[in-house]
Amino acid sequence: MPPRQESGELLQGTLGILILKALLPGAAHGYAIARWIEDTTDDVLSIEEGSLYPALRRLEDRRWVTTEWGLSENNRRAKFYTLTTAGRKHLREEAAVWLRYSQAVTRVLRAAPAIA
Amino acid sequence: MSQTPRWRRYLRFIRPNVAADVDDEIAFHVTMRVERNIALGLTPEAARADAVARFGDVAAVRDALVAHDARRQATEGRKEYLVDFLQDLRFGLRGLRRAPGFAAAAIITLALGIGANAAIFSVVDAVVLRPLPYAQPDGLVSIGTGAVGELIALTARLRSFAQIGAWVEQTHPVDVGQESLRVEGAAVTTNLLSLLGVAPRLGRGFLVEEGRQGKNTVLLISDGFWREHFGARPDVVGSKILVEGVPFTVVGVMPHDFHFPHATTRYWQPAAIDPANLGYNWAVWDKKIIGRLAPGVTLARAQREVRETWPTLRPLNPLWDPGPAYRQDVAPTLLQDSVIGTSGQLLWTLFGCVLLVLLIGCVNVANLLLARATTRERELAVRAALGGGRGRLVRQLITESLLLAGGFDTTQLIAARITPPERSYRDSTRVNALYDALRERVAAAPGVTSVTVSDKLPIAVPVWGMALRVRGQYEDAKHNLPTIGHFQQVTPGYFRTMRIPIVRGRGFTDADRSGQPLVAIVSQSVAKRYWPNAEALGQQIAPPWDAPWMTVVGIVPDTKQDSLRDTSRTSVYAPWAQSTLRYTAEMWVAARTTGDPSSLASTIRRIVRDLDRTIAVSSVRTMDAVVDESMRKTRFTVLLVGGFAAAALLLGAIGIYGVMSYLVGQRTQEMGIRLALGASAGGVLGLVVGRAARLAALGAALGILAALVATRWLSGLLYGVSATDPVTFVIVPIGFLAIAVLASYVPAHRATRIDPVRALKAE
User: Fold this and answer.
1) Is A63 in CB contact (< 8 Å) with chain B?
2) From the list A53, A72, A76, which residue is nearest B61 (CB)?
3) Topology of the domain comprising A7-110
């Protein structure tokens, strides 16, 4: 995580990684991304769904995703988001940082004496 | 969640609608969640409540997204627009490079049209559209031109005007320091400045008492005169200037944008008005009378009052009865309109010409595009290219050129204006002695064949009409006297110098002096009008005032006097030496030479200076130059209209050539086939050119018809030729036919010369 980010934005940054990961299999609209995160985390990370969209805009601004209007699975007009090459690269780097960070934190928390 | 009406989505067809897109995106999300909740078994109300709860603050998210997307669209839109534009530009330039002829025609066409438009519009804007620089110019009315007596009577009677004033142009010798100049000025009523709503930039305006004889030796000078001759010194107020040798006190300087009545007016002096001087007040009809409308009075009401009131002044004239037609034709107009007058009409005409040129340019470009796009529309394109509009421009060009035909013989003639100061030449003996000496000395100058002195000079001096008494027909000045167009007093040698032939009788001689029988010479139409069945020589005529009868001793042709546009005038001439006038401020000396007349200029100046140093000599010019000057405005018009007509012709020619050669070029393949099948080159050429000529002839016929219809309204603007001038209507279509034939011949000829196989492959 970049050190300048505050805790409130930490979640945003995290949300960004989750969104990019959700888009890795292919283009998806906002609701599909929300459902994917919900299903994948068993609703543990209860994200306010409305916050997805400003996060998507920020990703778009950084050219990590592109958008286009298309038809949804039930034939409704929906805005689809697609991961760009730059977005894929960013996802890889951030994921590596995040994994190292979380593994380190996990190790610390697991170290003796045990908490529980 | 969208409260936005559905129709707003269709705005997307015009431009991306940021808010509608955001609403759609959020609505889609919430709807999907609601449907899933219902599928999971929730009631619709509960499903909706859950969906909204999961989403969070819908309104805040919506606003944030709309603001974000709008910002991005603004920046990206500019980028995209520029990219598109550059793309179009590159594409266009590529296209133009492939068709340089077309590109040149289109560029020249549009450049000419737009350039001419911009130039003319700036003039129209400055002259016609910009109001006069006076306070509330729409309240200023030009009432008419008349005598001081009429001014006084109208001021007393008219109720529609808050103020009535008058002015008259005058040109006097003015001495500033060591310099003696002839300066254009105006005598104005003392209320004129307040009437116009203008104040001097320096000093004061005129006082009421300065409008009386003896008190009127004060002067306002123009800003330009002040800067040129007084170095813009503020202490000019109070200084003295000699006007005709009489000292005038400068009381003020007018603002730099005060050009009344002309841009060349350098000084203003109060007109002295003496209500008791009936002779002068009713004899001189040259005062321009203007008024400012009283509050709440419309122009129409004021016009009606003037039209009704002015003719009722007829009995007031103590000198003669002006007749039943007196002031029946008064037509008060807004000062603005009367000042712009004919130049306004001229400018609008020019503007129309320019618009037509632009129109032709646009038609050209459209035709070329059309011809490139589809050859099926060829007839239409050619017909349009030959269409109406051009004919009338060309006809106007020819019309204006025809105007430059001359009146009398102006070659090898030089003239000078001399201004003897009144204080030393009130006595007619002295004046006659001066003119005799002047004629004698100029006649002695090398190359001079004849010389004359006259109170007027054709073309150079505005003419005055005059009422005339005729012995045995119109004797009583109180009756309805006929008027003649021109009265002039001349010294012997006038007709010889001007090369005006004496048709019958004799010219004036040195024997026609005061004390001898009074004589006159009339022009042919005067003789024809008053003595149609009798001998005019020996008849008697007289001016309307109490002057003795003059006997007609000679007859000359009618001549143009005012300008070359003037119709020939009914004229009466009298010998200067028998004049009943005591003094005339300015006289003209004219001399005819065998050599270059301009070489005489310094001789005439020197002779006058030797005779009397106080006499100002000015306007020493050859008669050709005088005529030239009088034609300057006409020539300007000819040049402009002619320029536009030439541009229109050129554009028309380019257009026809472009369309024709393109269309024939399209048939290269067909010609190749015909040649390959054994047709002769001449036969193919004849076929193609003949078809083009028929097409052009059809277009020309339509063009002539259109021009005949379109020029009907134009006839009011023409003089000298009819609106359907046959020369124009023959030459122009023939010219365009020739261009069309040439335009088809050149590419067709080229096509028949190349190998049929290559022609077949040509695209």
Assistant:
1) no
2) A53
3) Arc Repressor Mutant, subunit A (1.10.10)
